Amino acid sequence: MKMNRFRKSFSLFGALLLLVSSWLPLNSKVYAADPVNDFTPGTSAQQLVNHLIQGSPISVVPDSETLKGLLKDTSTYSKLDAGTLPDSTRLTLNQGIFINSTGGSGAAYDDQQLQDVLTGANNFSQVTNATALQFQFTVPEGKTSIAVDFIFASQEGYTSDYDVAAVFVDDVNYAFMPNGSILRVNQGANLNNYSSPILSGWNSWSPPQTLVGLLDPNRAVHTLRIAVANTDDDSVPSGIFISNISSGNSTTGGVTTEALAPIANPPGGEVAAGTTVALSTSTGGAAIYYTTDGSSPTSSSQLYSAPIPVSTAMTIKAIAVKAGLSDSAVMSESYTITPQNSVISPTSASFDKYAASAGYADVTTTLTLNGNTLSGIQNGSTALVANTDYTVSGSTVTIKKEYLAAQPEGTTSLTFTFSAGAPQTLAIAVSDTTPQNSLITPTSASFDKYETSAGYADVETTLTLNGNTLSGIQNGSTALVANTDYTVSGSTVTIKKEYLAAQPEGTTSLTFAFSAGAPQTLAITVSDTTPQNSLITPTSASFDKYAASAGYADVTTTLTLKGNTLSSIDNGSTP
């Protein structure tokens, strides 16, 4: 109690100074000059916990977060860098939270759990101005412990033996040193006399350390409680920085005396080829040794001196080594390379199914594989057949025109798949400009060369052009003469009878040619029903009127009728 009386004898001015200092929130307004120490006052217990567990494998039970004390006594930060202790230990921690005991005069928050910790250490000081953050959580299956990195700091002198902090895991305090000391402002708790140039007024600092808490195997849901308090006064604060909650399978709890494991930035996962991985440890003066072949590192492994390039899949394992401390736990981070997408160029094309068009041609595209290989080409769910539907020569893929000619009009989307990376699509607009055939009706007719017959007439046929035009009419290799051999009026073509009368009997095939499409044929059966002359044989004879002569006899002649009949026999005008 003598020391307590000495402590209470501070000048009023000094006490006021300390009080004002303790009320200043650790936030970016105070430390705006250093973007690393971007302290931001806590806004709720949930916000503090969410910030603390970001990137952690543990899962918080919703609405289990509670805060005892004042929010103004809490802060979050992205990274702590409070300088370097005399033994070259760097006071750095990754993203975390800060809880301190500055409640201000009269803010006498007691805390039974902290009081029990003090009593258990045979210290009967009175806990005041306690701040405690508590929440429930679960861990991945099979994990039996959690660990946190922390720094304990105070505005008390490091030999004063005042103020206390504790970290309760499932209601058990694991904030005790290997020597058995609880976490108090004294040298037994590994505090050093150090005035941080960055955090003014904080004169006692522990190095960054790791605390391991063992999980109660009988609990499915666990509890973490971080608490700090003044003892016997309410004017000089102490606080605890907490960072990097992880789960593990430790069998011994408490504050470890080994170097803090290295941290990789970026952490393991999928990265672009050429990414460099920086290793660091919060243990000042520690050397880092690493391997990239999956083996466990030792102090004989590669000494880390510069970021490690990752160009292929690898696992980086590293330890931190420092004289006077046990080697750190092995950091292990596995990296895979983010595949670069292959590229095809062009990604669109067109094809015309009309075999006589310029668009009826193979379609080619060029591959930029970016280290991948072509696995295949799909049209919907149907795979194209290599060397039949397509060929590959070097970086050029050729889609065969015979394959495209079998596709329907519209867009044929061909999906190129690769050994890695995203598939690529070649969209081919398939059209068909094949002309429609023109039609003639009728396609056959007849003509009689007998001028007096009904069949001796012009032959007509009607054109259905389907967008084409009549180019001409051929009879074999001979072209008919327009307006002489034939005429065109609207859709009617007239083959002149005078032309047909000059054709031989049989079939005259007239070929109608058009601007596009197939030619059409008009088959005209040419006949000649002109009657043939009948014949008499002989056509001359003699007769002797002398009755007694041999020439006095009938005269006969033979008829060849040729389809006719004998109508009469005339002698001059006399029948």
UniProtKB/TrEMBL annotation:
Keywords: Carbohydrate metabolism, Cellulose degradation, Polysaccharide degradation, Signal. SUPFAM superfamilies: E set domains. The keyword Signal applies. Transmembrane segments: none annotated. Gene3D superfamilies: Immunoglobulins. InterPro entries: Carbo-bd_X2 (IPR005102), Choice_anch_L (IPR049804), GH29D-like_dom (IPR059177), Ig-like_fold (IPR013783), Ig_E-set (IPR014756). It holds the Pfam family CBM_X2. Residues 344-428, 440-524 form the Carbohydrate binding X2 domain. The keyword Cell inner membrane does not apply. It comes from the Bacteria. This is Carbohydrate binding domain X2. It comes from Paenibacillus sophorae.
